[in-house]
Amino acid sequence: MARIIGGIGTSHVPTIALAYDRGRQNEPAWEPLFEGYRPVAKWLAEQNPDVLVVFYNDHATTFFFDMYPTFAIGIGEHFPIADEGAGLRGLPDIRGDVEFQAHIAEALVNDEFDLAFFQSRPIDHGVASPLPLLWPHEPDWPGTVVPIAINVLQYPLPTARRCYRLGQAVRRAIESYPEDLRVVVVGTGGLSHQIHGERTGFNNTAWDLEFLDTFIRNPKKLTELRHADYVRLGGAESVEQIMWLAMRGVLSEDIYEIHRNYYLATTTAMTVVLYGEGVAPGAQQIAAAQTGLD
Fold first, then answer.
1. Dihedral sign, Cα of residue 60, residue 63, residue 68, residue 74
2. Residue from 193, 196, 227, 259 carrying the catalytic annotation
3. What's the EC number here (predicted)?
4. In the chain, fewer beta carbons within 10 Å around the N or the C end?
């Protein structure tokens, strides 16, 4: 059967994509961020997963506010990378495994999650910003993606608990798939940040680190928070953290942190964290890096 081998939590800030495309990885302002992704890319290369299941939010690219679903899953062989105003990126289309995507979709509906489905629509920076930092892409991506979009833009939003339960249902779906696939689950979205209104530029490093620590030990505590709690603690856009909880729901009860990089260079806290399933093989194998906190 398909097997989950780990999870990744990552920011999907659109300026990461711009910096990557323009070759700015070694500039002083950007190098600490990109350096943090290298251990994750190395781990993925070593583990060689067949599929990334990615929880993300669409930024009015695939959907618009006249019809914006709570949960949606992409089913298709190819999804183009969206042009979000900076021109087409030099990336191949995201590839999909239709049979696996359709299996997850059917399993979720049978598990009483009513989804929207989309095919061949462009996917924006919610997935495409961190993806080339995780996987090589020349001449093509090494595996397929199951894109699962979560509404964090237009109220009413799904609760943190509902997102966690969605992840648990996705785990059941993956483990019921008969083919031998190696699966990594990815949750994208920012930690503390607010990019509009009176609190523009707001960050809360103490809350970010508390969230990351609680995420491992006691994720159910995080599911008890209301959207207003996430906004109060981390800024309006930090409600994206509920997408991390969908990723956490897919993982087993016992996970350990392999690598963490937290970088606060601008108005947005940017991070990437790698988690392994099961009991940690040894403290010496857990590397944590926290950068730019001064």
1. negative
2. 193
3. 1.13.11.57
4. C
